[in-house]
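We emphasize that the prediction below concerns an isolated chain of 198 residues; any contacts that depend on oligomerization or on bound cofactors are therefore not represented. The input was used exactly as deposited, without trimming of termini.
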Amino acid sequence: MEVMTDYQRKKRVDELLIEPLIKTGMRKQARFKLEDHERFLDRLRGRLAYLDADNLKVLVPVLESAAGGKHKNTWPDLVSITNWAHGLQKPPDGDSRLITSYMKSEAGKQAWKLGPEYALMLRKHLRTYQRPPIEYSWIKIRQDATDLIGRATVIKERMTRGTASDEAQSWLAGLERALKDVEGFVFPKIESAEHEQA
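Result of the prediction step, given as a token string:
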């Protein structure tokens, strides 16, 4: 599989989505000045760059049918386009702004204070449902985190006795890597250094 640069992916959005829509008569929203519209298209390229070629092509008629304005020929809003794109193809894990912003919010930090396993299960919920948890969801997040802690404790005890299987030790190593990853989401960049000093 060919690995594409960010520039190539954005260019593909131009070639397969933006340019075909402009050719069919898609126009900027009336409330936008020309520079606002250029910013809109640039943000659109960034948000849709993860889509594969086939899904970009599928999105063209979706946007044509959703065009707004008096003559039904203006671009839909960015949020709607993004949601339709997500319906066609979920973005890669690292690309979801919901996950990164929610995990570094107060809710992510509170989950981390309960224990890293809670933050990990919160991230899993966000990946699965693509929305913040409601109170009922927290019940499952807490239960899953408790189960993780229990399983890890049992494996550590067996490792101390020399009775842990290779599979169990591998699972524990994977858990520790996942906990380290989620720490980077909760305490990104500069915050992580301050977190370690606390």
